[in-house]
Amino acid sequence: MACFEIKDLSFSYPGREKKALTQIDLKIKQGEFVVLCGRSGCGKSTLMRHLKPVLAPHGKKEGQILFYGTPLNEVDFRAQSSQIGYVLQNPDNQIVTDKVWHELSFGLESLGEDNQTIRLRVAEMASYFGIQDWFHKDVNDLSGGQKQLLNLASIMAMQPLVLLLDEPTSQLDPIAASDFLETIRKINREVGTTVIITEHRLEDVFPYADRVIVMEKSKIIANDTPRAVGRSLQDGENPMFHALPSPMRIYAGVENDLECPLTVREGRNWLSELVDGAEIQERAIIDDKKLEDLESVVEMKEIWFRYEKNSPDVVRGLSVKIPANKIFCIVGGNGTGKSTTLKLLTGILTPYRGKIVIRGKNIRKYKGNELFEHNLAMLPQNPQALFVKKTVKEDLLEMLNREPLSEEEKERRVGEMAELVDITDLLDQHPYDISGGEQQRAALAKVLLIEPKILLLDEPTKGLDNYFKFKLASILKKLNEKGVSVIMVSHDIEFCAAYGDSCSMFFDGDIVTTDTPNRFFSGNSFYTTSANRLSRHVFLNAVNDEDVIELCKRNLTTR
What is the Cα–Cα distance from 326 to 483, expressed in whole angstroms? Predict the structure, then answer.
C-alpha cells in the first residue's frame, strides 16, 4: 500500500516564476527506506515540507498528495501530528522544553494522552534509545548528537507511521552521524516505520536505501535502487555521481568488469578480488611534507575557558600555532570545544587564563572594530545568524556600508561575489526562503566581502552539495594565494582530507595531534575516510578516492 502518493505536484514560491517543484509524480510504499538527494536548491526540502502540512511553504501549489489514500489536506491535525514525524536539520530548532524527560513527553502531552500512556511511552523510548543516563539532564547540557537523538526519540514516542528527516546529520561528527543513521535503519527494519530522508553525506545512508530518488532543477531525474541510480548517474556523467559513496566512485575510476561495490565492506572485497594474483609494486602514497618552521598568523598559549564560574572547563590548556596562508582544519567530536575555540579567536568569548596573538598582536590590544576591519571574519555554524535584511542582495550590500565606494562600485562587487558563490539568481529572495545550502553560500559571500586576512569557518560545508564543495575548495585555495589564512572547524573529514593543508584532532578541550591530512587520517582506525578504510589492507596512506584509484592504476593491468 502507498504511504504517500504524489500526483503531478508543482510549486512556486511567492513572487517567483521559476518553479521549486515541477510535475512530481511519486509513490512511497509503506515500510520503505527512501533517500532523497540532489544539489542544493534542487527542491528536496521543499518536497519534504509538502509532506508535513504544518511545515509546507506558502506559495502557488498544483497537484495532489495522498496519505494512505486520503488527500493530505483532509487528514485531521491530530493524525498529521502523530502519524507524520519530522526531524529538522538543526536540532536546536526543534527542542521546546528545558529537560530531557519533558521533551520526550511533550508531544504526547500535546496530543492529550493520559498519564499512564505517557509514562509507558517515555520509558520505552528512553530505554530503546539509551537515554536513561541523561534522562534528568538539562537539554542545554547535551551534545549535538544527543539533541538530535532526543528529537528522534520524542517523535517516535508518538508512534508515527512515517518519519521524514531533512539532513539530520549535517551538524553531527562522523561517528555520531553513523550511529544516528544506524538507529534510523533499526527503526525502519524493526518497527516498520517508513523513512524518507534527505542527505548530502551519502556515504552511510546510501546503502541503507530501498530506493534512491535524485532531484535536479525541481524535477526527479532518477528513481531506482542505489546501484541502478549509481549506474544511471555515471552513464549520464551527472555531477551528482561525485556525491555517491567512495566505493562506487573508486570502482568507476578503475577499469574492471567486477560487480560495483556499495558499502566499504563490499569495497574491500572488490579491491581484494581486483588485486588477487597481482604483484604490488607501489603500495603507498608518499607524503614527505613538513609542517615545521611555518610562519604563524594565530597563536594561542595555554588557553583555559569555561562558560560559567562553577562549570567544567570547555577549553583546557590549549596551545597551538596556526600557519599563515594555509587551510588549517580542526576535527573532532561534538562538544569537544572546537566552535568555542573559534569564538575565542573572535573575542566573542574571553579566556580566564592564557594569551591569544593574532597577526603578531595580543587580541586584548585590538580596539573597537579593528579586529574585524579587513582583518578577521567568521562564518558561523548557523548562517541565518548573519542575515538581517529582507533580500540576499540587501544583506550583501550592508557589508559595504562603511566602505568609501560609489553605489555603482558596491553593486559591481556584490554582483561579482554573487557570481563567485553561485547565488546570482537568489539576490532578490529573502534569505530565509532559500535552501540550507544556498543560505550557506550567501553567508559565505557576505563574510568574504569584508576581505579578511584571517577567515574562520565553522562547518562551512554543511548543507553544500559536492559540486559546490569543489568550488569552495577552489575559492579557499585562491584566498590562500592572496595571503588569506583559513581556520576551519569541520565534521566533513572527506573535505578536510582532500583540501586541508594540516589537520588537528580536538579532544577534551585541547588539540591532541596535528599533521598533514595524509598522515593524520591514514593513522586513524575509525576517524578516517571511507577510501582509507576500504583500501588499507592493500595500500598504505591512501586517504582519498584519487589516492586509491591512482595506486590501482599504477599496479594493475586492465582486467
Answer: 9
The β-bridge relationship of strands 353-358 and 296-305 is antiparallel
Interval 182-239: pLDDT, tens: 999 999 999 999 999 998 888 889 999 999 999 999 999 999 999 999 999 998 889 8
252's CB contacts (< 8 A; 6+ apart) are: 234, 241, 260
290-304, pLDDT tens digit by residue?
776 678 899 999 999
Separation of alpha carbons 93 and 324, rounded Å: 36
> What are the CA-CA distances from residue 476 to residues 97, 164, 420, 471, 484 (Å)?
40, 34, 12, 9, 8
- pTM score above 0.90: no
Residue 189's contacts (CB-CB under 8 Å, 6 or more residues apart) are: none
End-to-end CA distance of the chain: 45
Residue 137 exposed, middle or buried by CB count within 10 Å (0-12, 13-18, 19+): middle
CA distance to 8, 32, 163, 251, 367, per residue, from 82 (Å): 26, 19, 10, 43, 54
Distance CA(390)–CA(369), nearest Å, equals 25
Sign of CA dihedral 464, 469, 473, 479: negative
